[in-house]
Design brief:
single chain; 260 residues; alpha/beta; 6-stranded mixed sheet; 10 strands; 36% helix; binds adenosine-5'-triphosphate; ABC_transporter-like_CS; ATP binding; ATP hydrolysis activity; ABC transporter ATP-binding protein
Length: 260
């Protein structure tokens, strides 16, 4: 395995006087690793994301990405959320291009390299099954298609770290499983580092190398579970006994957290 890419050393964060939202987090994520965070509502999963990407600073402890302390918003990360948040006045293609207009070093090259960037966006849209929808507006797309576009937007600037906060939470079960496979294929091809926050234990077990289970507030990591299922993983795996047993075990651990 490669060297640690994201490290948390004794990290705690208190937003206000009500006490720590997350507490004593120690972990390291390797470059190219796919990790998932699961835990009860309010345990600090989104807070963990904000610390990783520099949207919040820890109250105590240190967060490092690629060997450097995180001191402000991280340029090498891409993000997608439960709501696709596409801009309604932009076409799908222009939504995907947006980070290249904003993020350094691309923004200074945007006009000159536009054609090349459009090529990147078209290629990515094709990979996620959106070829032919480039000129459509978000309101002309289904929820699943919007989320596909949102993932393309998160990846267009070739981030080394992809942060996904419940990205498939609002989708129906079939679309969600389709998008797991889309994400799996993108990750297999490019091997960026992924931090996925989810409430869905099947999603975590299917996609991740490592699942972290967090306690109730103040959120602490109470379990680190390596997922040993061979890759590449087929969706059929999720209907087979070893996978079902694994999800049951994770569910039991979450159950313990909730009842404590
Ligand atoms: N900006 C903020 N100011 C004050 N408290 C906050 C802020 N953001 C989050 N919190 C609190 O910190 C705790 C952790 O919140 P966070 O959103 O990280 O949890 P979560 O695990 O992502 O929740 P959910 O699963 O419901 O999305 C909660 O108690 C929340 O109320």
């Amino acid at each position: 395995m490669s060297a640690a890419f994201v490290t948390f050393d004794d990290v705690s964060l208190a937003y206000d006087a009500s006490g720590n939202a997350i507490e004593d987090i120690n972990l390291s994520i390797h470059e190219g690793e796919f990790v998932a965070f699961v835990g009860p509502s309010g345990c600090g999963k989104s807070t963990f994301m904000k610390l990783c990407t520099g949207l919040h600073a820890p109250t105590t402890g240190a967060v490092r990405v690629d060997g450097e302390p995180v001191t402000g918003p991280l340029k090498i990360s891409g993000m997608a959320f439960q709501n696709a948040n596409l801009l309604p006045w932009r076409t799908t293609l222009d939504n995907v291009l947006l980070p290249l207009e904003i993020v350094k070093p691309y923004r200074h090259q945007f006009r000159k390299r536009r054609e090349e960037f459009v090529g990147w966006a078209r290629k990515l849209l094709k990979t996620v099954g959106l070829e032919g929808y480039e000129e459509q507006y978000p309101w002309q797309l289904s929820g699943g298609m919007q989320q596909r576009a949102s993932i393309c937007r998160a990846l267009i600037h070739q981030p080394r770290l992809l942060m996904l906060d419940e990205p498939f939470g609002a989708l129906d079960a079939f679309t969600r499983e389709e998008l797991w496979c889309v994400l799996r294929d993108l990750w297999e091809a490019q091997r960026f580092t992924v931090v996925l926050v989810t409430h869905d234990l099947r999603e975590a077990a299917f996609l991740a190398d490592t699942v972290y289970i967090m306690s109730r507030r103040p959120g602490r990591v109470i379990e680190r579970r390596q997922i040993e299922l061979p890759r590449p993983r087929a969706l059929e795996t999720t209907y087979q006994k070893p996978f079902i047993d694994l999800v049951q075990e994770l569910r039991a651990q979450i159950g313990e957290v909730r009842s404590n």
